[in-house]
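User: Sequence recovery, please. Input:
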């Protein structure tokens, strides 16, 4: 099956078609609904046929081992006029001619098993309940977004009126039927839970950001920070995995640069799809790169794609969106954070702390400061807001100062006072390859997240 096919019936109905095969038949396709004619002069003169479509093929494999199939199709291919050979539909052309010249091995599927939507197709000529008032007409079973007929970026719940009389109406029906499926939680379609190996974010970090560094529980406990005492008592190995479905870089104009490791800082955010106001505010304030993971159902993701196309804010070229499929039984905070971090292309990330971080001013400060790409982990502090400006100046804790802003470099020498400043920081800047958050920390307060990330860099 092509990936652009859409089932309108239970797939078990398709398996029943195998029972209709005669003893010699071992493959099946539905007729091609495009008016394209194939010309095979070398084989049987200047006759024409519309052929069959390879978007859905049934293959009775036990009846056709590779050697048998090779012995059938290769002589057919050898009869093509080689100097003038033209295969308008690649292997589909060969399979069509093989079926025509060897009708005893081929089973023709009903047209309702492959309603094609490319610009030259005529699915409305296929008798079905969508095109006829005949109560005995069969139901459409599979729609095929062939050629330029793909409608994957669209979402609509306006039910088309029957009968369908043109290709445009069939395309709207495709969008409607697909949208109905997207209203379901994707996990609901699983009849049993597959026990596959969980997705490990560490592999992505190692691939996209050189060799990563991943915190262990024993390393965290060495910090002796009181806020992390409960984590140390867990006495279990930290994990960085998820069983959530993730659609990384779903909207990314520069996706070809996905593995390009570049200097700079990316703002990383993990949000629910309902927090679009927060996202838009961040985009307006932060002019640099953004990597954002959005928790959403598939339907919500497609609605966002539609909004993205129409919004000059959301569609900015240096933003990457990654959808994490909603599942209330699985951890959220660490998965969203790790998704946004792992698929960032820069070597450092900025993690906002709290909802009131002034990203606009922080962006301006970082534009003025040229040492942020070389220094260690940085806590971005608004000293006046904290009421600690004099203390920061007295102990010379700021590597750089811009107005009320202080860039506090965290190192082993100032570990004792890090916790009190982390509780009031506006943001953290950290190496991307060291920025994964263990699942065990997911439900801890934000300050615990920040201290955990700092512990991994010191």
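Assistant: Recovered sequence (458 residues):
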């Amino acid at each position: 099956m092509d990936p652009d096919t859409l089932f309108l019936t239970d797939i078990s109905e398709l398996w029943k078609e195998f029972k209709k095969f005669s003893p010699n038949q071992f493959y099946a396709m539905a007729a091609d609904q495009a008016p394209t004619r194939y010309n095979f002069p070398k084989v049987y003169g200047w006759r024409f046929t519309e052929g069959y479509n390879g978007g859905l093929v049934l293959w009775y494999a036990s009846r056709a081992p590779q050697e048998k199939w090779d012995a059938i199709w290769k002589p057919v291919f050898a009869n093509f006029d080689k100097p003038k050979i033209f295969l308008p539909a690649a292997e589909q052309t060969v399979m069509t001619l093989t079926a025509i010249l060897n009708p005893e091995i081929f089973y023709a599927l009903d047209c309702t098993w492959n309603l094609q939507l490319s610009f030259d197709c005529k699915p409305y000529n296929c008798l079905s309940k969508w095109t006829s008032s005949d109560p005995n007409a069969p139901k459409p079973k599979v729609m095929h977004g062939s050629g330029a007929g793909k409608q994957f970026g669209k979402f609509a719940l306006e039910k088309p009126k029957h009968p369908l009389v043109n290709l445009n109406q069939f395309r709207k029906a495709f969008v409607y039927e697909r949208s109905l499926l997207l209203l379901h939680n994707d996990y609901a379609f699983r009849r049993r839970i597959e026990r596959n190996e969980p997705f490990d974010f560490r592999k992505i970090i190692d691939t996209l950001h050189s060799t990563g560094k991943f915190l262990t529980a024993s390393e965290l406990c060495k910090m002796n920070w009181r806020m992390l005492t409960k984590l140390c008592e867990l006495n279990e190995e930290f994990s960085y995995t998820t069983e959530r479905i993730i659609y990384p870089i779903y909207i990314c104009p520069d996706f070809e640069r996905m593995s390009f490791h570049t200097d700079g800082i990316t703002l990383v955010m993990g949000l629910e799809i309902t927090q679009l106001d927060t996202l838009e505010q961040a985009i307006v304030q932060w002019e640099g790169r953004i990597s954002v993971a959005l928790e959403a159902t598939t339907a919500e993701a497609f609605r966002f794609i539609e909004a993205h196309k129409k919004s000059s804010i959301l569609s900015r070229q240096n933003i990457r969106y990654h959808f994490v499929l909603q599942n209330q039984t699985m951890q959220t905070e660490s998965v969203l954070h790790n998704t946004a971090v792992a698929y960032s292309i820069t070597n450092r990330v900025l993690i906002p702390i709290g909802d009131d971080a002034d990203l606009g001013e922080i962006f301006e400060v970082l534009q003025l400061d040229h040492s942020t790409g070389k220094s260690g982990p940085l806590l971005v502090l608004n000293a006046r807001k904290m009421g600690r400006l004099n203390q920061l100046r007295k102990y010379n804790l700021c590597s750089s100062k811009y107005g009320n802003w202080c860039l506090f470099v965290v190192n082993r020498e100032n570990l004792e006072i890090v916790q009190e400043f982390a509780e009031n920081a506006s943001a953290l800047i950290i190496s991307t390859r060291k920025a994964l958050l263990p699942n065990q920390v997911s439900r801890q307060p934000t300050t615990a997240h920040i201290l955990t990330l700092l512990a991994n860099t010191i």
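The mean pLDDT is 85.
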